[in-house]
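The passage that follows is intended for readers who have already worked through the single-chain material. We present the inputs for a multi-component assembly, then the predicted structure in tokenized form, and finally a short commentary. You are encouraged to pause after the input and sketch how you expect the pieces to fit together before reading on.
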Amino acid sequence: MYEKIIQNVQKKTPLVHCITNYVTVNDCANIALACGGSPIMADEIKEVEEITSLSDGLVINIGTLNEKTIQSMIKAGKRANELFHPVILDPVGAGASKLRTETAFYLLKEIKCSVIRGNASEIKTLCEGKGTTKGVDVDERDAVENYLTHSISLAKKLSRQTDSVVVITGAIDVVTNGEITYIIRNGHPLMAKITGTGCMLTTVIGCYCGANKQNILEATVTAVGAMGLCGELAYKELQKVGRGTSTYRTFIIDFMSNINKVVLEEGLEIERR
Amino acid sequence: MYEKIIQNVQKKTPLVHCITNYVTVNDCANIALACGGSPIMADEIKEVEEITSLSDGLVINIGTLNEKTIQSMIKAGKRANELFHPVILDPVGAGASKLRTETAFYLLKEIKCSVIRGNASEIKTLCEGKGTTKGVDVDERDAVENYLTHSISLAKKLSRQTDSVVVITGAIDVVTNGEITYIIRNGHPLMAKITGTGCMLTTVIGCYCGANKQNILEATVTAVGAMGLCGELAYKELQKVGRGTSTYRTFIIDFMSNINKVVLEEGLEIERR
Amino acid sequence: MYEKIIQNVQKKTPLVHCITNYVTVNDCANIALACGGSPIMADEIKEVEEITSLSDGLVINIGTLNEKTIQSMIKAGKRANELFHPVILDPVGAGASKLRTETAFYLLKEIKCSVIRGNASEIKTLCEGKGTTKGVDVDERDAVENYLTHSISLAKKLSRQTDSVVVITGAIDVVTNGEITYIIRNGHPLMAKITGTGCMLTTVIGCYCGANKQNILEATVTAVGAMGLCGELAYKELQKVGRGTSTYRTFIIDFMSNINKVVLEEGLEIERR
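Having made your guess, compare it with the prediction:
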């Protein structure tokens, strides 16, 4: 399955429209290219419908949201829905400010999202309408490794509420469509020490879904596994050369640009429940 | 010639005002410094005229244009024209949305550009008033290697229409002032797998022109050749270390920071027609 | 002292709210994580007070200021003042445009800043109400190595005017609270050849102060020394591998992610006057 998903990305070069934050946007564009997609970043309200129409998928990331881009997100999302393009939502910092929480709910109300990806704090906020998000990083009390059962139940709940595939990333990643759940044990803790690994993953999910529109759940699981595996392989490589977190970021994208079925088959640790 | 152009950049440290996109802006700033220039990014309408006045050249890149920055581009461009500063236009995604196409034409109408740099799809859009641009990457049907003769003719046509030096980048690069045409066979296909190589080149052209105002055609050709050569040398280095596209990006900027006449004389493949 | 300051950062993981420019924001976020902090970038006026309230410190950087973000800076700064959070100001390009100079003065009038960090041109502008800033890089006539005595006197003057710790960075760095002055001789000239070393330092100061609110002067000195030391160590490493400025940038952040007391005790060259 994973092999086919990845082949489709590399064969189709899906064009993915990203309305995203200005902090990690360059890494998102580079990892989209690395994984086989073609990114286009555009957030001016006058052009977002047209850009989305050209594309194979839409990624909405509220990392540095502002009043203008929120309207662009809504407009692009509605157009993507009309065209049955996959829409991937990254509710960065939901729970950290009223604006972020309300915007996430507003987007979920107006747009049918194919996939929602967040950390445990963000997903809990969306699920329960309140949260304890501290900044854009996960609140320790929500760390998924200590709460795997609870996380699965949260992810399923949000999935059923929204009819979306829900991804909770953390030490262990959870992906569910409300019925089938995958547990992914790839990744490395050092990924939390570079900005944007979450945003990058969301973008990769956008590319994988854009090239596999009929298999959103499987495309998402493969993307999550691939990103985690890149984090692992990059860490091993980092140990060899003995450098720090900026080299680690470089290596993660490097591995994504060399992903292939062999690497995936050797390394993915995915459990289906 | 190339040697002198480059010496001027390194000697004069031209200050280049960039109104550019938020995706590749960091790479643009770093490659400007690497090639010997000094970049200043400023897009607030209240200050763009003053910043342009301080500078030796202006780079306008519409990669993530919005209503506010379009006005800043116009204002800065007019001021640069008054001061006879070179203005370099990168019409990113012209043809991909009505806003981008119209903005590119609006800029060309209001501002005299010294140099216009785009891929074949973008330049065709500007030349013919319509295009088939798919996102921000070149449409395959427009790929310059298959259409070299056609590309030269397009570039010449736009050059005569606008009285600008026109650059079409692709597997083979074309630079023309409408009379004299240069064909540059440096570069590597992997450059398309990192975001912003086009934007970076446009910025380097801005630096080279800013330090060689009397030789815009030659400065542009040298910048295109230097960038392509950095892409080639970086690829060779990448093969040695066996990594991926993010390391490749790093190496390209690294080589630009070490460019010198020896490297250029050894490697430039420029044909004058 | 330095050891304790750094331990506090790594132990407390201070959340630092940054309203900063879109050029170097990714490097700022990554170096904040590397040094032990947790960055959150947010500039929409509707959420800045809430985000600041969650945080341990606020960094204001006017590198790509615009009318909207200036208001966000004021609002966040006032809230931070109410909460006694350290506020760090980076007046990027003060002196280069009327807008930047006036904004810097407006911020200083409305907000009590714990630390102001700039190059000699920027600090002179703030100190004297006029300047000769050429772009965002230091004007040569203001280079601190030639004017150490003058720089110290400028820094002290601004410090007394504003009741802030003032940092002038250059070949030699000066940090003063108006009474006690530290001279830091770490760093390397190549740091000026990558964009954002100043912005990154300001962010590191934000993290160090956020975790050491009772020792703003010492936290600032330690951050300046740590950043300079990373620049030095990165340069040594760069010589070994023989690459260029983009690798240098990577190495600087790498070293920051591995900073520890041994490294600091071995390498800091700080003189107290």
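Commentary: Chain B touches chain A through 32 residues (CB under 8 Å). The two ends of chain B are 16 Å apart (CA to CA). How closely did your sketch match?
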